[in-house]
Amino acid sequence: MSTETGDAAVAAPMKVLHSAVYRGPHLFSHTPMIRIRLDLGALEEWPTDRLPGFTDALIAMLPGLQEHGCSYGVPGGFIRRMREGTWLGHVTEHVALELQTRAGSRVTRGKTRSVRGCPGCYNVLYAYREEEVGLLAGRLALRLVDSLLPAELRGVRGLDELHERDPMAGGGGLEEGLRALGRLVGRRALGPTTRSLVQEAERRGIPVMRLDDFSLVQLGHGKKQQRLRASITGRTSSIAVEIAGDKDLTKSLLADAGIPVPKGAVVRSAEAAMREAGRIGYPVVTKPLDGNHGRGVSLDLRTPEAVRAGFEHAALHGRSVIVEQQFTGHDHRILVIGGEVRAVAQRVPAHVVGDGERSIAELIEEVNRDPRRGDGHEKTLTRIVVDDHVTDLLAKEGLTLESVPEKDRWVALRDTANLSTGGTAIDRTDDIHPENACIARRAAQIVGLDVAGIDFLAPDIRRSVRETGGGIVEVNAAPGFRMHLEPFEGWARDIARPAIDMLFPDGETGRIPIIAVTGTNGKSTTTRMVAHILAHAGLCVGMTSTSGIWVNGEKILDGDASGPRSARMVLREPTVEAAVLETARGGILREGLGFEAADIGAVLNIAADHLGIKEVDTLDDLAAVKSVVVESVRRDGCSVLNADDPLTLAMERHARGRIAFFSMKGGDAMPELLREHVRAGGLAVVNEDGPAGRDIVVHDDGRRLPLMSAAEIPATLGGMAGFNIQNALAAVAITYAQGISPPVIRAALQGFSTSFEQSPGRLNIHDAHGFRVILDYAHNPAGLAALCEVVGKLRPKHRRLIGMVSIPGDRRDEDIREMGRIAAGTFDEIVLRERPDGRGREAGEVIRLLAEGALAAGFPEERIHRVMDEHDATRHCLAMARRGDLVVLTPTSVEAVWAQVLTFTPEETPALAAEMA
């Protein structure tokens, strides 16, 4: 309830109910996004047009919002929406996007939608590049929006759902928040080199997976992947990196090959450095043996005292120091990729140019105001930092920071021209003399680097150094691309493209086939069938399922692995040639898919399960979640749909790629819609009458291709297990669409059984105790009904049917009762059990509801057995069994119950032991 004070409602302020990070395609979009479930509270009655001054105040703080097009699609569109009146959830979306952009992590995609059944609640969704940055931006966005509200409406709650840090706490304000966000971007965002390579890979359609919080990135999947960190690639030789790191060894190898390099020596004392300088001849250079980024380098040393100081400076960065001849000329960085010169930049040391009015300190401050300059590698250029090296260098010229250099005087602030110390770069790619380019290429090849930065001193890069003097002073592994991508002067060079071409030649994309299988029932069996067929075709298959992860037939992880994390694990496996991924509802809702796009997506069926959980209340809701799989299929891929299931069939409208149907209704029973699809040349796999029973037939491009009799597949129990025929139809459609030949598919399915080894927990049969045991993970009404259909066909061969039945406690009451009703229609004795966790229900409640369903169906009370624990319930079923009985177990702990079945002996049951005797 709210009370009124003037025009403002005094009531609960905004509250974050929860948040989610979608790392792949999800229910709301194909773009990775952060979702904030926001309850506006009293602010549901306060759109922006009712908040005086709100819009203008927000624009003043974030003027970039004026560029947001929103639904109008033109700059200013969002501001127009605010002036017309929009809800604060929508405002939060745009502010979170703009904050990330201001901090240097540009994103533009977002959407806000009301939540069904929750008045005043909105799903606020916005894109992100770095997960932690996106979460902090969401927190700051809500704090900022909240700060502009009337005092009686402020006090947003639940912000810790987003990010534990709050830079705006304690009156820090927007600027402090932006600084914190910028620092976080600096720590989490990819550097310019890695970013350029990732962007080129994405442009080429190569999948990208970030492997750590820094710059380790995987391009491609499975066996076709390549890894890189900045410009170090998975192909970069470790020996070559070591050679490049040893500057003396590098010079020796190059000199032996006739490459012009400066004379020099490695020393470990100032006295030795001075002796070598005298032998080489002044001027000389001192630098650490294994330094980088210009650290510890001193140039133009012309006296023994200067050499001593240079040695001491270099020794701070390593025990061994190089003293070498100083080449004269301009400092150039030549970038060699794959044995070819791809870019040349002339590097200019950090400096200022006098104007006759301002001091050197003021001139440095002016240079640092350039918006292209930032801290470290966050921007095109790096800010100049005043340190002892700067002041010492100025002192050599008789200057201080307070000195006012005359107009046009060039004042050096650094000896070296590294961008990381404030230097700039001028593109010279088109100017390099062919002989200089040849020298650089050979140097990279001699050291052995696939990507090399050659530091080349030359008076005039347009003339050969063999004529002018000069040569190579260093060969660098992991050269930065920044100076070539965005030079201070001259043309930007597209150097990421040749680097990616080197890793993925001839247009390779680094992709392996990704097959995603979803649905209510049959996912695990179909996934295993598909993996079995692909393995039969000679592929190394990575498979995820609710039972674990397998690679090349070996189990590498136990437990439920049907979510996105498991999918990513398989896609990172360096031996995998094809990924077959069971894709469950829970993972899609939690964080989206674990991959950007599937080559083949399959939806098997939609049935009542998990309803009433996480806002999936109806079958239509469930279908919307499952359809994410086929909506994320590649354009040149294939969506496989069950034509016998209306909700699955309806997904054809949104599914991507080629459409393939499977159906139990073939031949004369084929529905007209499916018949039209076949007549139009579409792909369909159907079960139809044949000479020896029901046949599996492929229709494709107007051709009819009989594959095999369904009874030939051991998993169908001679054709009795209709649900496994249906699973086989889906598996055939999937693998045929993937290009597996019919003979290979047929041979593979002829070897696919319901053994525990091949399909644990799915129609496993054990005959060893004088009675038959069937173990199947039938955990919802549709699954139990399909199992009971098979059991009913087996009834004539057995004396009694004993069934152990349960269902997770988070299912609806009507679903639990329905399980009891289905069991009552099949079994002679029913053993009801519960899961140990209860999933929110009191102990015994699930059994009570199951019993209510059975009793309502007319099942006798005396034949209902209530046993809480699964182990005890299994033992009870086995103990009740007599010769000729059929015991059906639907376990939660599949492996434990199967082990219990295998180790059971008739001696445990005296009556049975007597029968067996």
Features:
917 residues, alpha/beta, UDP-N-acetylmuramoyl-L-alanine:D-glutamate ligase, eleven-stranded mixed sheet, elongated, disordered N terminus
| Tally of strands | 40
Distance between the termini: 76 Å
In order across it, which strands form the biggest sheet? Answer: 27-26-25-28-24-29-30-31-32-33-34
Radius of gyration: 35 Å
Question: What is the C-level CATH assignment of the domain at 516-749?
Answer: Alpha Beta
The stretches of 5 or more residues where confidence is low (pLDDT under 50) are: 1-10
Q: Into which percentage range does the β-strand content fall?
A: 15-25%
Number of helices: 31
CATH superfamily of the domain at 516-749: Mur-like, catalytic domain
Rough shape? elongated
Question: Mind sketching the topology for me?
Answer:
Elements: E1 3-5, E2 8-10, E3 15-22, E4 33-39, H1 54-61, H2 77-84, H3 88-102, E5 110-114, E6 121-127, H4 131-147, H5 173-188, H6 192-203, E7 208-210, E8 216-219, E9 226-229, E10 232-233, H7 238-245, H8 247-256, E11 264-267, H9 270-280, E12 284-288, E13 298-301, H10 304-315, E14 321-325, E15 330-337, E16 340-348, E17 351-353, H11 360-368, E18 373-374, E19 381-382, H12 388-396, E20 410-412, E21 424-427, H13 434-447, E22 451-458, H14 465-468, E23 471-477, H15 482-485, H16 496-503, E24 514-518, H17 523-536, E25 541-545, E26 548-551, E27 554-558, H18 564-572, E28 578-582, H19 585-591, E29 598-603, H20 619-626, H21 628-631, E30 633-642, H22 646-649, E31 658-663, H23 672-679, E32 683-690, E33 693-700, E34 703-709, H24 722-737, H25 742-749, E35 764-767, E36 772-775, H26 781-794, E37 801-805, H27 813-824, E38 829-832, H28 845-856, E39 864-866, H29 870-880, E40 886-889, H30 894-903, H31 910-916
Parallel strand pairs: 18-19, 24-28, 24-29, 25-28, 29-30, 30-31, 31-32, 36-40, 37-38, 37-40, 38-39
Antiparallel strand pairs: 1-2, 3-4, 4-6, 5-6, 7-8, 8-9, 9-10, 11-14, 12-13, 12-14, 15-16, 15-22, 16-21, 17-20, 22-23, 25-26, 26-27, 32-33, 33-34, 35-36
Helix pairs in contact: 3-4, 4-5, 6-16, 9-10, 17-24, 17-25, 26-27, 27-28, 29-30
